[in-house]
Specification:
Elements: E1 2-4, E2 8-13, E3 18-24, E4 46-47, E5 58-61, E6 64-67, E7 80-84, E8 89-94, H1 97-100, E9 107-116, E10 119-128, E11 134-136, E12 139-140, E13 143-145, E14 158-171, E15 181-191, H2 194-200, E16 203-206, E17 212-216, E18 222-226, E19 232-236, E20 244-250, E21 270-272, E22 277-286
Antiparallel strand pairs: 1-2, 2-3, 4-12, 5-6, 7-8, 8-9, 9-10, 10-22, 11-21, 13-20, 14-15, 14-16, 14-17, 16-19, 17-18, 18-22, 19-20
GO molecular function: carbohydrate binding; isomerase activity
Organism: [Clostridium] innocuum 2959
Protein name: Aldose 1-epimerase
């Protein structure tokens, strides 16, 4: 499965319905992280119906205990291609007995891709195909190569919001023994710093007003993702010297300590009525 134009080629894989590569055919630059066991084998999973996980990996629903792996179900699934016509690629995944043993709801999940010039639009549609309300949350986890060009370093790159921001940063206890705190931060540019990310484990911000976040390096190559409408933005890399960075728009987040609310009322959880469809999208622009 692929989409191409006279400058760019984007390929896709059925595993997780993910982007496999985003290549500039003129320069040879590969923008997407390709996964590596020394750092992180993931690439750009969709996070449904969980972002992260509950504190102990289990939750209760209707008096029964369930468990899902980190970030839910879709990233581990093989999706069906329902459209690959050169203009759009669409993949889908439906609930099954296997998924309902982990998450007791009926759903239809679709991810669609469309390439125009230097911009890939990614659209997600999640439909509640059951007969009762469906609690869920959703997030994105795209990894980008950083640096992109020979002779550059990770620390040469910066991330910049399209507008100056006054944000809340979620700061959590690595041992998850106490609730997270919210710290006020004012910024527009964030340096790519292994030390800063390691200090917080993940940089997580709330309350963005900007439409875009741009990652760019000294040779004026980079990526710009749209973040409008997403309540949270996470920035993560695996460890020092990992040659990638993840820019992650989220609707919710993991448990950072013990949460008293039930699964349906965890922070960031949305409720989808029977027969209704939740739609969200974002764009990846490369340069």
């Amino acid at each position: 499965m692929k989409l191409t134009n006279n400058r760019y080629e984007v390929t896709f894989t059925a595993k997780g319905g993910e982007i496999e590569s985003f290549t500039d055919l003129e320069t040879g630059i590969q923008y997407m992280w390709q996964g590596h066991p020394d750092y992180w084998t993931g690439k750009n999973p969709g996070l449904f119906p969980l972002v992260g996980n509950t504190l102990d990996g289990t939750y209760e629903m209707d008096g029964k205990t369930y468990a899902m792996k980190n970030h839910g179900l879709v990233r581990y699934a093989t999706l069906d291609c329902v459209c690959d016509d050169g203009k759009e690629v669409i993949m889908a995944f439906d609930s099954s007995a296997e998924t309902k043993a982990q998450y007791p709801f009926d759903f239809h999940y679709e991810v669609g891709y469309a390439l125009q010039d230097d911009t890939l639009t990614v659209t997600y549609r999640i439909t509640n195909t059951g007969e009762r309300d469906m609690p869920f949350t959703f997030g994105l986890h795209p990894g980008f190569n950083c640096p992109l060009c020979e002779g550059e370093a990770f620390e040469d790159y910066t991330m910049r919001f399209s507008n100056p921001e006054k944000l809340k940063q979620l700061v959590f206890d690595p041992e998850k023994k106490k609730p997270y705190t919210l710290e006020d931060v004012e910024l527009q540019t964030i340096p790519c710093s292994y030390e800063e990310i390691e200090k917080y484990a993940t940089l997580i911000y709330q309350g963005m007003k900007s439409s875009y976040l741009t990652l760019s390096g000294p040779n004026n190559h980079g990526v710009r993702i749209s973040i409008s409408g997403y309540p949270y933005l996470a920035i993560w890399t695996a460890k020092k010297n990992a040659p990638f960075i993840c820019l992650e728009p989220w609707y919710g987040h993991a448990d950072f300590s013990r949460v008293e609310e039930d699964f349906s009322h965890r922070e960031g959880t949305m409720t989808l009525s029977a027969g209704k469809t939740f739609t969200t999208a974002y764009t990846i622009q490369v340069f």
